[in-house]
Amino acid sequence: MVAPLTTSPKQLLRSAGCRVTGQRELLLEVIQAQPGHLDADELYRLARQRDPKLSLSTVYRTLRLLHDLGLVDELHLDEEHHHYEIKPTAAHHHLLCLGCGQIVEFSSPLAERLKVAVAREHDFEITAARIDLTGYCARCREARQNGSDEAPSRPPFREVRRDGASEVSHSPPQG
Questions:
Q1: Do 109 and 80 share a domain, yes or no?
Q2: Residues 173 and 101: beta-carbon distance below 8 Å
Q3: Residue finishing a domain among 27, 51, 86
Q4: pLDDT surpasses 80 at 166
Q5: What is the rounded average pLDDT of the residues 144-172?
Q6: Same domain flag for 112 and 153
Q7: Residue 61 has what pLDDT?
Q8: Are residues 160 and 120 in the same domain?
Q9: Cβ-Cβ contacts under 8 Å for 90 (sequence gap 6 or more)
Q10: Average pLDDT in the 70-93 region?
């Protein structure tokens, strides 16, 4: 099931056959409102601004449910913890800077052609494909070439969406 941003959290939960609770609705609403990828801690922090009684265990249980219902994607972006985003309506992939943690979403017709070619070559039905490319953004690459082990100082974590717009989001991944 695809979760378009124009559909209300309550409608999404109902259409997935899920009981609507205030906390589920709130968490889905917070995920929808964010331009980028949230981890459970960031989602918890943002949602508690509106519901101080919300527990972290409720966030984790709800994320698992929303993932199982196909409403959110769980991403493993070369880190120890997961990020979540509303299930996109179109395929996209990720570039992840190992220096500063910036995530850039991109689409490529090559990905679809690769999927078709591999499926044909191996007589395999491919139901999903993810491409996450890791490396260094221009700023971090320049800092590394200048002999600095430190990632350049940046404003808060920046995500670049498929349309090229830059969004300020949560803090970069630690570790």
A1: no
A2: yes
A3: 86
A4: no
A5: 53
A6: yes
A7: 92
A8: yes
A9: 107
A10: 76
Q: Give backbone dihedrals phi and psi of 96, rounded to 5 degrees, phi first.
A: -125, 120
Beta bridge partners of 74: 84
The per-residue pLDDT of the chain, averaged, comes to 78
The CATH number of the domain where 57 resides is what? 1.10.10.10
Owner of token pair 């609403």: 29
> What burial letters (b/e) apply to 30-58, b meaning 16+ CB within 10 Å?
bbbebebbbbbebbbebbbeeeeebeeeb
Specify the number of domains making up the chain. Answer: 2
* Domain extent at residue 139: 93-168
pLDDT at residue 63 greater than cutoff 90: yes
pLDDT of residue 43: 94
Residues 124 and 65 in one domain: no
What does the alpha-carbon distance between residue 59 and residue 45 come to, in Å, rounded to a whole number?
Answer: 10
pTM to 2 decimal places: 0.63
- Residues 41 and 106 occupy one common structural domain: no
What sign for the dihedral angle of Cα 111, 173, 78, 57? negative
> Same structural domain for residues 99 and 161?
yes
CA distances from 85 to 27, 152, 154 (A): 12, 27, 23
Give residue 52's pLDDT band: very low, low, confident or very high (50, 70, 90): very high
